[in-house]
Amino acid sequence: MRPAHPHRPRAALGAVLVTVATILAVPAAAGAGTTGRAAAAATARTTARTGRLDATSAPFPAPTWIDTVGPIALSSPTVATIDGVEAVVFASENGELDVVNARTRANLAGWPEPVNLSGDAPTAIESSPTVAYLDGPAKPPTIIVGAGSTYVRNEQGGVVAFRANGTVRFTFHTVATFNQWSGTSNPRPNGYDNSVFSTPAVGDLTGDGQQDIVFGSYDHRLYALTPQGTLVPGFPIDTEDTIWSSPALAHARGKKAQEDIFIGGDASGRRGCYGGFVYDVTYQEKQPRIVWQHCEEQTIWSSPAVGVINSTGRLAVVVGTGFGWPPPYKPGADAIYAYYADNGARVAGWPVATAGPTFGSPAIGTVGTSSAPVVVDTSWCTSCAASPGTSMVYAWSGSGTPLWSQALQGAQDFSSPVLVDLTGSGQNDVLVGSATGLFPLDGSTGGFLFGTTKSAAINTCSMQGAPAVADVPGSGPGAGWHLFETCGGPQQEISTGRLFDYPLPATPATLPPWPMWRADPRHDGIVATTAAGASPP
Length: 537
Description:
Layout: H1 9-17, H2 33-50, E1 65-69, E2 78-82, E3 85-91, E4 96-101, E5 113-114, E6 130-132, E7 142-147, E8 158-163, E9 168-173, E10 201-203, E11 212-216, E12 221-225, E13 237-238, E14 248-250, E15 260-268, E16 274-284, E17 287-296, E18 305-308, E19 315-319, E20 335-340, E21 352-353, E22 363-365, E23 374-380, E24 390-397, E25 402-409, E26 418-420, E27 429-434, E28 437-441, E29 468-472, E30 480-487, E31 497-503
Antiparallel strand pairs: 1-31, 2-3, 3-4, 4-5, 6-7, 7-8, 8-9, 10-11, 11-12, 12-13, 14-15, 15-16, 16-17, 18-19, 19-20, 20-21, 22-23, 23-24, 24-25, 26-27, 27-28, 29-30, 30-31
């Protein structure tokens, strides 16, 4: 058993967010809501006439509604269909999982629910909720979330699955491998099962049609559960160090429907590696087997995205790094990596260099005028001495050629991008957060849209996750294409979180290729083919 790294991310997070702790989670144009809505209506009419919105002069629409929630750390909202209603599913460090009507903000029946793993007190949540059809498309979906925190001490970790009506389907405990809050290099267990920051992904690991639940844990293990919450035979795999990364699931070999697991992890001596691993795990002869693995010079806390990125037509696994091994960072920390899923070979032109560690997770899809897939991600900016307190956003072609980069106010960005057409042009743009707010960027150039600038975001709510976009059925101001954002946290720095609902400035002329964290409600990390909703398997 290997100890976890004593250098916890909570210290770095605190250093970042203490500078924004007093920023209010309100729209940047607070007090101008009526004007913003009028401008949004005018620009919508322009879009209807011309087919393209002038994003240089139009402001971003004001929120349709804002909800006050618990502090948000790392977790992202998921949009899916629950009981026939388009719903926003989200979680916070107060230990509550909530499901609200995306159009009206009203709680669905049975929600919110505490995520209890032991006793009466709920466990803080930094994972993102996953929505999937574990029992087939004719039955209601299940909502699964990991539980545990580096910020909130002395709480049990694990995974809880809920039925659509809010009742608990099953509870799964991880192992108490070490005291994750001790800050020492060799901490002994303290009786608390280690946390699950990894967002569960759902797919068919064995090729037999069963929808399995896959996640990593701080207890050093990679888990796969059946729909009943029992271990898939052969799991867990002991990776000998902590796992922050969330898995991607994609077909690379075996039966037609079978999906491999692609995930990152930490390494503190396993196989001589000090940094992090990227793994491909397949299920063969009733056992999981590591097909390929790469040791890199930094922890892999980023979560892989999988998709075709070049003319070979082969699936690529694209992933960033982390910051677990402290400065001075080795060169491999400031990079985005790409490997072919079928054999682990590095994709030509990759890795690509960044200005700092890349905690955020990549998005894959066409953006701007590009007709070929593009990779978009964030990084820290440890080399930006002339512009302190900033982070970076990049776009690269599938061959690793830089297309554009943009600096954002807010140091040490943890956020991940989504891709959506914001102007009604049929060309996808980028939505991405930072410690100072949420930014819309032009997909072709990386330029700021809708009157935002490097230091003036859509709002001033500190953000660590990814937003979500969806087409909400119905009528009224809450219907149509909307953006949902959870932000404000962690609780040591910002005690209150927010859930924002914004109408998109224009109706997308093409379906978003990457509309939410991990691409879709099942969080399998594959380029989306539908805009939103928990698609039946």
